[in-house]
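Reviewer 2 asked us to include a model.

Predict the structure of this chain.
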Amino acid sequence: MIEVHTPVSKECISKLQIGDQIEISGIIYTGRDAVLPKLVKLCQENPKQLKVSLEGGVMFHTAVSSAGIGPTSSNKLEIESSIGPLSEKGIKIHLGKGALSKETTKLLKKYNAIYAITPPVTALLTSKIISTEVIMFPEEGMEALHKLKVSAIPAIVAIAHGESLFCESGSK
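Predicted model (structure tokens):
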């Protein structure tokens, strides 16, 4: 198991390979269908209003509720289309579940970012949360942008350096 701490350095990302088992500790952000398009729009149109630094960040494709956290499908249009722009703004690891497109794999490579999949085990993931805070878009309820302090979130690197676990040719 490889320990990864936030903020994630470019050097850390360059060493990770598909299939690596990682544990992420530190501050991560959450977003799904409702909030990620808003976050991308804010980054593009008015980045000074962004209340967080995305540099070296981790974006977990999930909502936060009293029932816990668990990954949502990252290949939903609203989520997958946010991966390139947020990687460009500094996000280094995207956490979720499901295969991503060849184009997204290329964008991850271009911005030296990776995609990792998490086990869909809500109780396990929830037990790794130390604290949670709504940072932006509170009107979205459990889908608001949250800042989580976590300890040892398990994941498997699924896409890195233009290679993908999801098909034999290295990309979807």
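The chain has one domain: 2-163. DSSP finds five helices and eight strands in the chain. We have added this to the supplementary material.
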